[in-house]
Amino acid sequence: MPDLAMSLSLHGLLLFVVACLQGFLIPAAASPRLALTAHSKAVIHAVALGLCAVSILSGAVVLGPTASRIALALLAGGAWLSLIGDVWASLQGPGAHLPLAAQAAGQPCDPAEQDYALPKASRRQASGKPRLSTLLVKVSAVLMMAGGLVLLYGAGWSLLMI
């Protein structure tokens, strides 16, 4: 278990450093607002990995070796895929991201996505294949959620009642 905590904390630290470096590239992106989103999300994911490590070290979560490897792959993999997908979208420019992030950046969303940032009556139908950056962001969210569920599986629920 300390190995899992160490791995998660090191991935969190490395992700934090990479996010800080990526922050210097925000002005050079085709969509600086999406680049800022990528930067912010990476910092949040780095902190989340650190908090997962703390929950393991504190004894609140106890996992076996297989579940530990699965949790690490899902959580760290999801955090890195999210950064890659978001940075890629910010470099591609208009039409490269999910509707809510694109709307916040003042950009059109991925044409393969139905623009759920708009009222249902004024949405256009999705068309074409989704961009890889959009798929990476969606897959990363599912991976991190699944990793969280693995950690919850090993959680000591009796600790909530103290």
Describe the protein's architecture and organization.
The chain is mostly helical and 162 residues long. It has one domain (2-155). 64% of the residues lie in helices and 0% in strands. It has five helices and no strands. The relative contact order is 0.17. The mean pLDDT is 87.
Give a concise summary.
With 162 residues, the chain is an all-alpha fold.
- How many beta-strand runs? 0
Structural class: mainly alpha
Proportion of residues in helical segments: 55-70%
- Sheet bearing the most strands, described? none
How many structural domains in the coordinates?
A: 1
Specify the overall morphology. Answer: globular
Radius of gyration: 18 Å
Number of helices: 5
Secondary-structure element order, N to C? HHHHH
The stretches of 5 or more residues where confidence is low (pLDDT under 50) are: none
Strand content: under 5%
Q: Overall pLDDT, averaged? A: 87
- N-to-C terminal Cα separation, in Å? 24 Å
How is the secondary structure organized here?
Elements: H1 2-23, H2 32-57, H3 65-92, H4 99-104, H5 132-153
Helix pairs in contact: 1-2, 1-3, 2-3, 3-5
List keywords for this structure.
single chain, 5 helices, mainly alpha, 64% helix, 162 residues, globular
